[in-house]
Amino acid sequence: MKIWQESMSLSIEVYKVTTNFPNDERYGLTSQIKRAAVSIPSNIAEGSSRGSNKDFGRYLSISLGSAFELETQILIAKELNLINNSNYNNISSKLEQIQKMIIGFLNSLTNSILNDSENEVFNSYLNSNV
């Protein structure tokens, strides 16, 4: 999946950028940033293995939350001068694309879930009136 591939690439980039953070941030912001970055592809992968679109959508929502969390943390790192403008702009741009992809995928799954639900109701109605 393209969303998973892009978010994996972002996670690796985030890990590389945070290696330059000060040691006193290792258990603070650095750890939070890494966890949020890894959470994005991890939840996409876990959700894709679930048996229903509804479950997958739940995991995509978690992944999207992690993406917005990472966006905030990267901004904080920039404001603290822990990340330079070039790295910030690059990560932010990739993150924005991933967020859009997740939202688009979520919308698609939601429509699919609604259609499945409508079909269930319609089929149930037909079967009860036969």
What does this structure look like?
The protein has 130 residues and is mainly alpha-helical. The mean pLDDT is 88. It has four helices and no strands. The protein has one domain: de novo design (two linked rop proteins), CATH 1.20.1440. The protein starts with a helix and ends with a helix. The chain has helices at residues 2-18, 29-48, 53-79, 85-128.
CATH architecture: Up-down Bundle
The CATH superfamily title: 23S rRNA-intervening sequence
The fraction of residues assigned to DSSP E strands is: under 5%
Determine Rg (CA atoms, Å): 19 Å
Beta-strand segment tally? 0
Low-confidence stretches: none
Number of discrete domains? 1
- CATH class category: Mainly Alpha
Report the span from N to C terminus. 43 Å
Give the overall average pLDDT: 88
* Helix and strand element order: HHHH
The biggest beta sheet, please? none
Please count the helical segments.
4
The SS-based structural class is mainly alpha
